[in-house]
Each structure stands twice: as C-alpha cells, then as structure tokens.
Amino acid sequence: MKLKKFEIPNTTQELEDEAEILGIMIGDGSIQHKGSDIRLQVREKDFAENFANLIQKTYGLKASITRPRYYCVYVCGK
What is the spatial distance between Cα 78 and Cα 69, in angstroms, rounded to a whole number? Predict the structure, then answer.
C-alpha cells in the first residue's frame, strides 16, 4: 500500500475550510470508486455551489454540479 502525502493546513482559514468539507461529507456526502471520487447530493443550489467552491479553493480540484432531481456535486480525485 502506497501512502499519500499529507499536508497540514498553513492557516486557520485552511483548517476551517477542511473542517467544513469534512463535516459536509459526514452529513450529506459519499466516497466512491475506491476512495478517489466524492459525491454530495443536496436540495439547495447555494449549498452545492458553496461546497464546489470550497473543494476548488482548498484542493484545487474542479467539481461539477448536475441536477437530475437534487443538486449533485461530483469531484474526481484522479
């Protein structure tokens, strides 16, 4: 098993952003495809957009938002 690099947040804001992402994922999110993809499914558009922006700002990953029935945010880690 290869360990991934872990970086400690440099600022209080970075730590707060990561804590918010973790809280959202515990409450409403899911991790799929062997841990490389995350998904969030919510009713509120603003909530979905805020989560996508947090992912972009914190990890530099682009999140896509679709709306079949709920707002779905997808982030691919690979």
Answer: 26
